[in-house]
Write the structure tokens for this entry.
Amino acid sequence: MADTLESTTFEPEPAGPVRVPALGPVGMLRWAWRQLTSMRTALLLLFLLALASVPGSLLPQRGVNPIAVSDYKAANPGVSPWLDRFSFFDVYASPWFAATYLLLFISLVGCVLPRTGQHWRAMRGQPPAAPRNLSRLPVATSFETSESPEAVLERAERSLRGSRFRVVTGDGWVASEKGYLRETGNLIFHFSLVVLLIGVAWGSLGGVKGVALVVEGEGFANTVTQYDQVTPGLAYDLGSLAPFSFTLDDFRATYEAGPVQTGAARTFEADLTVIDEPGATPRQVTVQVNKPLNVEGFKVFLVGHGYAPTFTVRDARGRVVFDQPVPCLPQDGNFTSQCVIKVPDARPTQLGFTGFFFPTVIDGGGPVSYFPGAENPEVYLNAWSGDLGLDDGISRSVYTLDTEKLAAVKAKASDGAPLVVPLKPGQTFTLPDGLGSITFSGLQEWTTLSVARDPGKELALVGAVGAILGLLLTLFIRRRRVWVRATSGADGATVVEVAGLAKNEASGVEADVDALVLALAPTRTSEPEPNDRESDLRE
Amino acid sequence: MVDEGLAKISLELAYSAMAVYTAAFIGYAVAAASTAGKRDDARVRADLATVGAGGPGAAESGAVVAAAEAVPETAVSDGRFPGQKAAGIATALTLLAFVLELGSVLARTASVQRVPWGNMHEFTLTTSTVLAGGFLIVALRDRSKQVLGVFVVPCVLLALGLSVTVLYAEAAELIPALKSGWLVVHVMAAMIATGAFALGALFSALFLVKERSDRRLAAGEIAEPGRVARLLPEAGSMDRMAYRINAFTFPLWTFAVIAGAIWAENAWGRYWGWDPKEVWAFITWVVYAAYLHARATAGWTSRGSAWIALAGFGTLMFNYFGVNLLVNGLHSYSGV
Ligand code: HEM
């Protein structure tokens, strides 16, 4: 605490080596606490926090992009295990990052609590009496006048009160101080940071977020099984997910068609029919990128989209064994999308298809997409027959086809080139060897929606706003003290001394002293001169 | 939606502004050259004029006389100095260039019919305008700081030059993620803060130059201040200026970060996701918080805190150029 108190004046302290006093265990503890809560430690911890944040922006992070992490690990097998061991792929959830900010916050509380007590007393107390020797203050001046000391002091008091100084008078002097709100602001700022941290912690413990892919015409109910991925906070019970549901009626994306930035996205909109809780009346909501759906404390955001062509597959017997939209994953800005179709019900053998969807092809231009909007869509597929491997109980991604027990369907039985099936909407292709047929029977879009609940965010916002308000107070309010002493001189004239003390940088106390002298002096006699003997001013 | 003609006018205005800034820079360089030799002497004269004969500089009478010949008496007691005229002309040119650049920003705005903050060309153009405007505020209020244009104008030119060349992006509508009222609030705060921090960093850097020169002078390592140091106002005043600017800008930066977080919550469902852009905004914030702490910590010198301010500005620049162009994140809006 010692040097935080001194921080209110600006005399550089000789840094000197840190002395460890020879004390007992209690003394040692007290000494350690004082070190931890010193301004110097706070400064050090702030630097450490900045430094500790850096690697997370340069290395891929699991919390941000898990796929990038696996790619990185595959590309750098040497260092990755070490990076992983020291949480470099989870920097912001790592023990060392937490240690840094927790120490910083402990230091903060340890520093700010005692200051709060002091400030409380200062607020209720009075400005300190005038020091004996005013001329030794940083800003000091004096003049003589014919008025009596009492009259001068009374005018000084009035003038200072008029400038909203807090004033106390004594025998032959007036003491005043102004700008208490500065320290108030400083305390508000630091406490707001604590509130912010609590808000963040509460949100991550008691919150939940997940992602779900929904195809047009399909629905989503807020239960664990409907999510593609869901991450609850440590204190969140997934069983308590609010039972809302919605249907994705329509998704619309528009793209720049002009010559500049052709194909850049322009609008995304999803029309939802929302049922807030079982039995509630459905309501229509349009969700946009910056306009999420609010439902039962959850927010639902648009985070991604793509195409889901509908395929109808008939097997060797001519029976419809597959008829549904297949979400294809976009691979580039023009939405060339990868599709996987699994038809486990086809007989005599199961069928599979892999290939690409192109929203806009140029006829005769081959399998290339020229525009992200579905102006002239086409799919190119390879066909597979055999065992899809779905029955061994191992869960597999719907977006990849395990071709181990499958045989590629050949274009001609004789030569080895695999069959390529080009299809436009409405077209049907009959597979060779009587395996069946596939129809590109329709086109839907899908969207990924992020569903999130963060119970701490309001508190975090309160902390953030408090921090700004506190900062404004502490950075723009100037704290200063002004004293006046008036004594009768030997020749009958009254000697008036006026002095000021800045409690912070750029305090403008010179102007205060100037103004007061102007108000009190008969004519101005001398400038307030900066005085550099500040050293014995600290109370 | 987009008016190509206006976009072209915007570009032409930007090029004109560059030409005029270049002329202004030449003016400042002339002012600097004539000031560098004489400013200290002029200040001695000024001291003599107020303090009276026999002041501290009397011994250097040779130089004082030379300076006195170059400068009319009244100008000296005015706080003016040789090169003031050239600096004045250069400042007028800077003002003209600023108006042209502002015109460029407005034409771009009209062309795209939205705030001109959708890509790095637009950010950089606006930030450069803010920097020039900030400098003009300082220069028009305090003539003695006008010569600093010789340092500020090249920065303005550099930003403007980058914005119309490598960072240039054709006028276009916004991508959906940027279509939000928060764009205006967040980006405006961030851009003003960036321009202001740039100015603060410039003062910190110049303070370091001057302070070092003062120190070496005092230690007898050099006989007289170098060219740059001679040009500069008193070290303490630049230090205070840097502090004022940084202290003013810190709450603004805080606000920009918070507005960004609110926007992110609105667009992506989380207010803070440690995206690289967010990480570096946080780092900048922490470093400037450290700067303010250092100023209030016993045992830390102005020099130390000036270095922290420069480091803070470095992190800001890295966020702007490094993260936008090198690191992949959600904030991939550079438009380059
Ligand atoms: C999360 C960590 C912290 C941040 C971001 C932070 C930020 C700030 C900022 C921006 C200021 C500037 C306000 C001004 O100049 O008046 C400030 C002032 C101050 N901080 Fe902190 N602080 C942190 C932690 C601490 C800690 C741990 C301590 C105590 C050891 C502390 C003690 C102080 C004091 C005493 C001042 C007032 C200085 C003055 O008198 O002007 N802060 N802080």
